[in-house]
Input
Amino acid sequence: MTQKRINRAAFEPAYLQLINILREQISKGLFRAGDCLPSESQLCKTYKVSPMTVRRAINALIEQGAVSTVQGRGTFVRPLQLSTAVFGLDQFQRLFTEGADTKVKILEVGIISADAESAQKLRQPEGTRIILIRRLIARGEEPLIYHREYLVYDSGRPVVEAEMEVASLHGLFAGGEAATIKWGQLSISTEELTEEAAGLLKAEIGKPAFHLEHLFYDFDEQPVSWGGFICRGDMFKFNAIVGFVESGVNLRRGKTASL
Amino acid sequence: MTQKRINRAAFEPAYLQLINILREQISKGLFRAGDCLPSESQLCKTYKVSPMTVRRAINALIEQGAVSTVQGRGTFVRPLQLSTAVFGLDQFQRLFTEGADTKVKILEVGIISADAESAQKLRQPEGTRIILIRRLIARGEEPLIYHREYLVYDSGRPVVEAEMEVASLHGLFAGGEAATIKWGQLSISTEELTEEAAGLLKAEIGKPAFHLEHLFYDFDEQPVSWGGFICRGDMFKFNAIVGFVESGVNLRRGKTASL
DNA sequence: AAGTGGTCTAGACCACTAT
DNA sequence: TAGTGGTCTAGACCACTTT
Output
């Protein structure tokens, strides 16, 4: 086995090279699940790097889920676990970033009286005036997503501004400024298309759809927006990868979770 | 503003304390999206820690998606982005770890002739003998998931062993030994319940269901298992949180992604 | 030139596990 | 006791951006 070495002249920093060397060795089967990696001091000598650099590489592998450590015993390769899979909203984001033929059509903006459910979600008394926005997101002529959103009505802030700031879909997905929102809860469930949604999405009533529900809070921990994206089930899919893929790992954050 | 300090006597290491201090300051609104954090050398002085410790904290915040850095300019608080949400299979895992009343019932184990689709997925000629395993996963008396899995038939390895090793569901979810599997692709789609699935899951035909499809590869990059979990749509939900939640962040890996 | 992020060193010290 | 992981220091050097 030809021992790989750290190339100090390379653009790639030493800790990254070490991460990829170790990942490759695991990936090649040199170390299998349950096996013990060389000790950190051993790695220092082998690759001629300082303890801190080795530690950094090991920490990254731990975060990736590739290995786990036990103090006083060693570093062990973890077996593959489905529960470490992470599914993202990449497909949604791509809709708004790539291919500019994605159109967001505002179907309705208005002030309505909060029903029991929206009042509870937004922590407002039932019957309070709240804002309702309904949108249809299409790619080309094909409607893909129906979005319904309920916003707290703040008399100090005009509806248009609220719509621009809080509810700009492009911003939320592609990285605009949702500076008023501190955090949010998301959930994905599956539902049958209602008559309303089916009509808008040009699909059959009762067909399965993804429902991405969201509830956003501001910096005062008050709900400001509640709503959901109804997505045609035949047009969306959530993907993930577990385990050790061949290609080297770069600096992007861990959508490719391991083990 | 009373400046928080690092407590050297505490169990919590300095870099973790610093992470939580910075997260709290962002969470409290001291730094808003787009704002510039104090420089690293400034943080060194303020909290009386070495550059490496500050760097480690900042790196963690970057991985969490909370901030981003620009060389020569500074560290900036990132706005909330939906696309950073990560959905996991925690609910599946819980099914197999918590509450031992989860039962996996083997409905069928047999050798069949590969049809076009399974042959293609497993990279075998059509008509090859492959293993089919059908399972029903129930909590108490309530059937929740119907699992169908196609395995490459290896004459050197008896079916029982293949089933134990490769396909032990508990292992895959809870962390057993799937040492023969190197990596896998997963995808979640939504489908209507077929007559077969509906019957097994005691649900209505045509009702929406989640379909978690999996394709596993061994260390030779050959497919070994293809299959899918059909999950009653009314029993499952995938959750995620984006942005800055109040509670302190601990060492667990980042299911709670930020930004 | 001064300030920023980014990497790295060569040790130190501690807690834990094995023997 | 010796070896392991885990944290931390006090600087060094580099690349970059701003003034």
